[in-house]
Amino acid sequence: MEIFQLLTHLDQHLLNLAQVYGTWIYLILFLIVFAETGLVVAPFLPGDSLLFVTGALAGTGALHPGILLGLLLAASFLGDNTNYWIGRYFGPRIFHSKTSRLLNRQHLELTHAFYRKHGGKAIILARFFPIIRTFAPFVAGVGRMDYRQFLPYSFAGGLAWVGFFVLSGYFFGNIPAVKQNLSLVMLGIIAVSLSPGLFHFLRQRLRRG
Hints:
Elements: H1 2-8, H2 10-21, H3 24-38, H4 48-60, H5 65-94, H6 105-126, H7 132-142, H8 147-172, H9 176-180, H10 182-208
Helix pairs in contact: 2-4, 3-5, 4-8, 5-7, 5-8, 6-7, 6-8
């Protein structure tokens, strides 16, 4: 319930934090986005909704739009790359068993082959799917996707993700109808973000059934 309250009233919480911590709010936002994209243990942190609300606050003058975009893009890019190298470093140690059904070298090799074929598209599209965007760079690292291939797609995906949601909030977040119903907008963003994963899950269940 507390997480639900946080997500649906993110605008109030961020505005309060900005008023209390001043310019330190930029560091707080940087760390949240970095953790959500860079640590496989933190997929529960707000992503799309956070970017939208920060953009809306920038539209009111509470945050500087240029600084905000630069910092959040840097956080997204550095988080994605940190996650990649965590996966690349620990992958061989995790997937070393030849008998385990999940953690075995065959799955590692299949992951590697998948990212060699679809890596660029997967890295960019994953940015727009909660939870998946947290694990995609880790799996790319585990699969030892060529880093020279990963790097430009990581940057392009981060630019598209941060740019889309922050600028959407900046230009549309303070429209009276949106501002008065921001909790519903947050719920809509969360629902739209989660719907592709839910659709895929249900389709797989129906196929198995």
